[in-house]
Every structure is written in C-alpha cells, then in structure tokens.
Amino acid sequence: MIQNLPTYIVITFILTTVVTLLLFFGIIRNSDSDKMRKKSKPILIGLIIWLTAQMALTLSHFYSQNLSAFPPKLFIFGILPPLLLIILLLVTKNGREFTDSLPLENITYLNIIRIPVELVLYWLFIEKEIPELMTFEGRNFDILSGISAPIVAYLVFTKRKLSHNFLLIWNLICLGLLVNIVTNALLSAPFSIQKLAFEQPNVAVLYFPFSWLPTFIVPVVLFGHLVSIRQLIIKKDF
C-alpha cells in the first residue's frame, strides 16, 4: 500500500468498489430473465474472487516490479481478462442473451459511482500519486458522467421527458469521456509505453486498493455503456 496516504482516501475507494460491486449485482438481480437472475449469486462470487486475486497480486508487488516489461503486467493480468470477457459477452449468443436482459435504468444509475472515483483521483493528485491531467482540473471530465447520470436516469425512465435517442447520445458521450481518461491514465503510468506526465507518473494504480480501478471499476462502467448502446440500438423502446 502507499505509505503515509490519508486513511480517508483508502476507505473511500474501498467503499466505492464495494458499492460498484453491489450495484452491479443489483443490475443482474433485476434482469428481465429468470435464468439470468439465478446466475447473480455465482457471478457475485466470481467477482469477489477476482477482486481478491487482484488484491493479492497488488499487495505482493507483482504489478510494481519490472515496470519496463512489455506489455505491462497490469495490462496482461488485470485489464485484459475483463476486456476479453466483455467481448465474449457481446459477440456470443449466450452472452448477448445475458446483456440484453439487463435493465437500462439500473445501468444508467450505476454511473453515479464515477463521482467518488473522481474525488479519489483528485485526492491522489494532491498526495502526488497521480498527475493533474487525470483529475477534473486537468484533462479528465469523467465526473460529468457521474453528476449527470441520476438526472438523465430520472428524466428518461421516471418522468419520460428525455428520449431513447438522447440516452443513446449520452452513453456515447460518456463512453468517450471514459476512453479519454483511460488513455491518459495508461500513457501516464510508469510503463514502457509511458508518453505523458513524466514529472509525476500515475503510480497509484500499482498499489492496493487503487489497482481495483483499472481491473474492476473501469471494466464494469465500460461494460455498462456497451450494453446500453447495444440495447438502445436494437430496441425501439424501454
């Protein structure tokens, strides 16, 4: 773990991760398919195992050793597996059956977790663990997704004031904001591919619990947008 880091930052991020896990579990529990709802507990157990494995790898300094390796170990063992799983879910018949059964409203509300994530990133910048460009004072505008999520969800699903197309455009914009911060974060990390922020690299992701950001929270948010965009394109209403 990062030495001398204020406890409130660590606690806030751990709680954010737990809330993300519970919200994602709730999404599956509210699936349109009884078959998928029955899979919610095994999926929850699988995600807990994944988080535990990432914690073990990070605490053993696996990701912070041999940073010059290409591809970076964090990418191979932490980021690539969930990305491959997302692709599998979107391109296979059984996977699409699962993704198409998930409730759009719940997925939209899930993006609220981006608010505490952005606050933690700002605090980590203050503590000189990430560069300014990864915060809302730099190149990261992802907090707008978190702030707008409950408003958009309420106006679309509760008040029916915003349209299907508006929600699609909102998801595309928020996906773009996510890609922006992920790209800047990767290029700022002290790996062989680093291109940015040499004066203050993104070192926080190499330590627990912040390794959960690229290995769990970001994939969950990415999955939510891709599922939402797919559903909004193939369905005419919700």
TrEMBL record:
<feature type="transmembrane region" description="Helical">
    <location>
        <begin position="6"/>
        <end position="28"/>
    </location>
</feature>
<feature type="transmembrane region" description="Helical">
    <location>
        <begin position="40"/>
        <end position="62"/>
    </location>
</feature>
<feature type="transmembrane region" description="Helical">
    <location>
        <begin position="74"/>
        <end position="92"/>
    </location>
</feature>
<keyword id="KW-0812">Transmembrane</keyword>
<protein>
    <submittedName>
        <fullName>Uncharacterized protein</fullName>
    </submittedName>
</protein>
<keyword id="KW-0472">Membrane</keyword>
<feature type="transmembrane region" description="Helical">
    <location>
        <begin position="138"/>
        <end position="157"/>
    </location>
</feature>
<feature type="transmembrane region" description="Helical">
    <location>
        <begin position="104"/>
        <end position="126"/>
    </location>
</feature>
<feature type="transmembrane region" description="Helical">
    <location>
        <begin position="205"/>
        <end position="227"/>
    </location>
</feature>
<keyword id="KW-1133">Transmembrane helix</keyword>
<feature type="transmembrane region" description="Helical">
    <location>
        <begin position="169"/>
        <end position="193"/>
    </location>
</feature>
